[in-house]
Write a structure and sequence with these properties.
- This protein has about 230 residues and is an all-alpha fold.
- The protein has one domain: Up-down Bundle (Four Helix Bundle (Hemerythrin (Met), subunit A)).
- It is built from 6 helices and 2 strands.
- It has a two-stranded antiparallel sheet.
- Helix 1 runs antiparallel to helix 2.
- The longest helix is centred in the C-terminal third of the chain and has 32 residues.
């Protein structure tokens, strides 16, 4: 999903004379109190309500609120670009809110789906992969931007976010249906939802790792450019 932080997820070569991103005037006098940042802050608050609903096993309510929160992620990015309201605060707040709602939801789903077969479950391993990738990309972003480089969205990173949202939503719907439609082994029959969840779990796993490795390779070329050939 396109967001305010879309310019942060792929790597460009730093300028010859690195300039700290802290010194770059992105705001140009614009106020931080704008619609995109308000939407990001609202998404952060909604995230904690989603977490509370999952803990309380009110999965349908958590699903509805998760969808609304995910929608604000697209809206705030569109609004910021459309009305030229991209700010330094937005570049920090928007990806932070994304990480909170995705990582938190995956961790809590892993605690609730421990009895679900691993091959279509939001498992603890998947949650660790998702969190680990986010920590890795954040560290790389910090290193590259300190050198004057920049991140902009890669297609695989956008797909990763889409599949993560579909997996989280599918997991919540699965848990909502579980008490009333459980089969004899404690799970749901292999219907459309089970297949939907299984496909998206594996696509999330694949694209989370692949997109993370893309950033590692790209960052490595900048952080260790190698010896330049001598001329003359």
């Amino acid at each position: 999903m396109p967001t305010q932080s879309d310019s942060q997820d792929s790597i460009q070569q730093p300028a010859t004379k690195p300039e700290s991103p802290i010194d770059v005037d992105l705001d140009d006098g614009r106020s931080n109190w704008n619609v995109p940042n308000a939407l990001s802050a609202t998404r952060l608050l909604m995230s904690f309500v989603v977490f509370g609903l999952i803990v309380a096993e009110s999965y349908f309510g958590a699903l509805v609120l998760f969808i609304l929160a995910a929608s604000t992620d697209w809206i705030d990015g569109w609004w910021a670009r459309k009305f030229n309201q991209i700010t330094k605060l937005g570049r920090i707040l928007d990806p932070f809110c994304d990480k909170i709602i995705i990582c938190g939801t995956f961790v809590l789903l892993a605690t609730k789906m421990d009895a679900v077969p691993w091959y279509f479950s939001v498992s603890g391993i998947l949650a660790v992969v998702v969190i680990g990738r986010e920590l890795l990309v954040t560290a790389l972003r910090s290193a590259i931007e300190s050198m004057g480089g920049d991140f902009s969205a890669r297609f695989t990173g956008k797909l990763k976010m889409v599949f993560q949202c579909l997996t989280a939503g599918g997991g919540l719907l699965y848990l909502h249906r579980l008490p009333s439609e459980s089969s004899g082994d404690g799970g749901l029959p292999m219907d459309w939802l089970t297949w939907f969840l299984m496909i998206n779990v594996w696509l999330t796993f694949i694209f989370t790792i692949y997109s993370g490795m893309e950033y590692v390779v790209a960052a490595g070329k900048i952080l260790n450019p190698g010896k330049q050939p001598e001329t003359g």
